[in-house]
Specification:
The chain is α/β, with parallel strands linked by helices and 446 residues long. The protein has helices at residues 7-25, 47-59, 66-79, 90-100, 129-134, 155-158, 178-188, 243-253, 301-334, 367-376, 396-401, 412-420, 432-444; strands at residues 83-87, 116-120, 137-141, 163-169, 191-195, 203-206, 209-212, 219-223, 236-240, 341-342, 350-351, 356-361, 406-407, 421-425.
Amino acid sequence: MFENMNEQEARDRILEMVGEYCDKFHKRDTAFMEGQRIPYASRVYDREEMMNLVDSSLEFWLTSGRYTDEFEQSLAKYLGIKYCSLVNSGSSANLIAFMALTSPLLGDRQVKRGDEVITVAAGFPTTVTPMIQYGAVPVFVDVTIGQYNIDVTKLEEAYSGKCKAVMLAHTLGNPFDLKAVKDFCDRHKLWLIEDNCDALGSKYILDGMEYFTGTVGDIGTSSFYPPHHMTMGEGGAVYTNDPLLNKCIRSFRDWGRDCVCPSGHDNLCGHRFDGQYGELPKGYDHKYVYSHFGYNLKATDMQAAIGCAQLKKFPGFVKRRRHNFDLLKDLLIKGGAQDKLILPEAAGNSIPSWFGFLMTCREGVSRNDIVRKLEADGIQTRMLFSGNLIKHPCFDEMRASGSGYRVVGSLDNTDRIMNDSFWIGVYPGMTDEMIGYMSTQICACI
């Protein structure tokens, strides 16, 4: 097949065939028939992603490489931020973001075991897991119904002299009150980590300026798991404008090493064998000097190759998500659903990139009945992740001992969400016909 071809010509032929294969066997018919399964999320891709994936595999570099560099630079440029590090999942991104704050390089602002971090229990567990595993103390604050983000009126009550940071997610693409939270953090000299895994592309207007969520705090994180705003299968990112935090992030991602040379490169600084580190002998190989207890959480270049193609489509994904959300809400209002369901509200000063459409049943309306009916009609539903995280088995020992975490006041709205809230998707592969069918079925079952 490859006779009389050089390597580049052979590669071009392979990629051409991959594109043709994708067009024939992966191109989906967008025509919707009532009763067809409507997932809450799904991958949206075409030949570009598949050709990039195969292109990377043909190089057989496997670990991070040229596509990783391109993706990190492109995402940083899109977000308007200085530094971006690709990792293997959104959970790893949250782990590294938090662990960066534990670095001794941060001096008096280092988060130590026993220090407190303000967060919420109504969300995904991996926003909180790194704190608990390290030995920090999460301080749980209630949320609001309608926006489903932290109740900022409780922030001062949550603060204590042990508090070092705030780590919060933007719920399903709806930004939390960044102005109030940022002002609070600045006032008390606290770190702010924005878990942006469900909100990539969302914007917030602060002091008259538009910012992408994830870029207002000290560190932002993203996830590229298939249901998220864009995908590379598994994958995540950590980003910051702070060069010292970036150094810590890179070190924790790359085994905890002190050296900043990228994979496949040695001695870029020219001082690989002449430094003095800890109690090591002078001149010990800098590539094997460790300044943190780190991990290997890098993604592969094949994942990054998919991400590069997805990122080019991403502005269109965000636009479609907003369209789907607005259309669904309009149809539900016209159908009178707001009498039975609390419909979601965008945060003030925000332009959300919606991940889902979250609803809370009003008094006398059964969530379980609605969810079972929708699932029977082919409409996939989800809870707001953990509902109330501290009610889960993973908290059994801490609940029994009354230690390891702190709750501010009551978590009444968090419990309400656990009992009465559910959501459906607005992903960019949905058509207006799908949105119309979902609204009709919701209105019919309430």
